[in-house]
Amino acid sequence: MDMCILENANNHSHKSSGPAFRFGLNSKSAVATLNTRSPDCCKAPCRISSTSIDYQLIKDWIEKCHKYHVGHCGPPGNTIISGFKVIDCETRQIIHPSVDCPYAALSYIWGAPNSSPNVKESWPRTILDSMSLVLRLGHRYLWVDRYCIDQTNAAEKHTQIANMDLIYANAEVTIIAAAGDSPEYGLPGVSTTPRKHQHYFTVNDLELIEIFEFGKTGKEEIGKSVWASRAWTLQESVLSQRRLIFTDYEVIFECNTMHQRESIQLSNKDFGGDHDYDLRGRVLGAPVGGGPISQTHHRYALASDLMEECSERTLSFESDALNACLGILKHYRVQHWWGVLVRPPKYSSRLCSVYVDWFKDKPGKRREGFPSWSWTSITGRTKQGYMSDLRGPFRGCKIEVPLPDGNWQTIEEWSQIGGSIENLSPKNCLRITGSVLSVCLVHEDDMHGVHDDLKGAPTHIGKDVLGEYYLHIGNTPSSCTTSVKFDDQDDDTETLSDIVALVWYRGPSDEGTTLILLKPVKIGYKRVGIAWWVSPENLPALHNTSVTIELY
């Protein structure tokens, strides 16, 4: 056994049932508590096998959730989904289940494409382990997107993606394979993949057991995993009612109400009662469900935060930028078009808040097939239009959306009748009427004579990180510059030579004005960036006349 160094850790923030100590093992420290084996102990450490799992413990977690959390973790209902299939874990065949068939879902890393998913020998270790787990938990059926959705059938794939929220929400439990970097890694502790060794030792008649540091086994460990880097897995975890998370250290259970870990167990008294060791959201770090969310502002705030997180995750296919988050948008019942949130008017305002004022911390790569006004059109983390929600009543332009019959409808009218995407034309264009300002890019060497207070911040253009240019607004030398974020990393001073600025939001006295930067294209305009004006006294005069443009 390795040499252990003990020190009293009773002042440590970790709560324990008895005397606590900190001990070092090969430069790694953890918190240990004395296992008193007392039935009155609220939380007690537990020894974990590196090669096997206590399936009865997991079944108890799930059973407790079913028994005590009906109002928070109950499924939305047995909605029939056309073409829905599952894997029969006994026969290992893909079947169409009955309507009320209980099933588990799997969230994992796909890996390389497989041309023959129905062949049992081709199933990777993670799938095989998940089948074994399902059977050991007393169930029979498993849903795995890659195998239960015909990837060659566009209509079936579209239907399944559109109902992803129901598929995960209706599952008895979602198995999250958060360990490893491929589908061949397996679920640690289920079959051939071992878990990290848990240290323990005895002092006289007392047994000290290592409790894995929560940061290492929980949010930190999962946050740096390949699984957590994928865009699709975000909605898979958020939409699930119960999540069984497999890490290299232990199994973690999380539902919409409670959190459980193998290395810390509740006593029988607390385990069967209403008092839960509630660490909701601490592991996956995402806002989760918990019954209907009635407040509109809460739904849109959660959806906006999740869109921001989803935007920085990786995709195997860039064309999935919107598909990977459709389940979240549907779950939170928010209106949107191409992922751009459209919040109905609130308070005394008659205008919708339209989140077109998103921006990137640094320019990304433009994706094909997405409208330029949607954040899905550019790679990289998106900061959602925070001013949209705050300044909705001060929107400085009229927005119209296209109808299938060729006519146009204000976005407020569209929102009022339900905001259904099916009611729109596939034209994917916004018609905007508002004020447009002339702008140009000015090199810093040509900024002499402009007071520093009027310069704003230097602009990063494309891949240029030197910030040598400023966005100049107005037609006279006395006009000032402003801070700007460009979208596309491949744009340069030549391609941006003919841009204009659309006044998107105008606060009182023009304070906090937001400008959407546009570039003329063959048909209409495309978005290329965003700018902010914070000094109303220096803003060039806005003409009362408006222009109408089509933004693609």
Walk me through what this model shows:
The radius of gyration is 27 Å and the shape is elongated. It is built from 15 helices and 30 strands. It is 20% helix and 25% strand. It folds into 2 domains: 55-194 and 214-263, no CATH class; 295-552, no CATH class. The longest helix has 16 residues, at 296-311. By secondary structure, it is α+β, with helices and mostly antiparallel strands. The strands form 7 sheets. Strands 6-5-8-7-9-12-13-14 form an 8-stranded mixed beta sheet, sandwiched between helices. It has a 6-stranded antiparallel β-barrel with strand order 24-25-26-29-28-27. α10 (231-239) runs antiparallel to α12. Mean pLDDT is 79; it is low at 1-41, 267-282 and 288-292.
How is this structure best summarized?
The protein is of the alpha+beta class.
Keywords:
six-stranded antiparallel barrel; 2 domains; 552 residues; eight-stranded mixed β-sheet; alpha+beta; 15 helices
Mean pLDDT: 79
**Order of strands, widest sheet:** 6-5-8-7-9-12-13-14
- Pick out the low-confidence regions: 1-41, 267-282, 288-292
**Topology, number of strands:** 30
Q: Helical amount among residues, as a percent range?
A: 10-25%
Strands, helices and their partners?
Layout lengths: L4 E4 L11 E6 L2 E7 L8 E3 L9 H14 L1 H4 L12 E3 L4 E3 L8 E4 L17 H12 L4 E3 L1 H4 L5 H9 L1 H6 L4 E4 L22 E4 L2 E6 L2 H4 L1 H5 L2 H4 L1 H9 L2 E5 L4 E5 L3 E3 L2 E3 L1 H4 L24 H16 L14 H6 L4 E2 L2 E4 L9 E2 L4 E2 L21 E2 L2 H6 L5 E6 L5 E3 H6 L13 E5 L1 E8 L25 E5 L7 E6 L13 E6 L7 E8 L4 E9 L13 E5 L1
Helix pairs in contact: 10-12
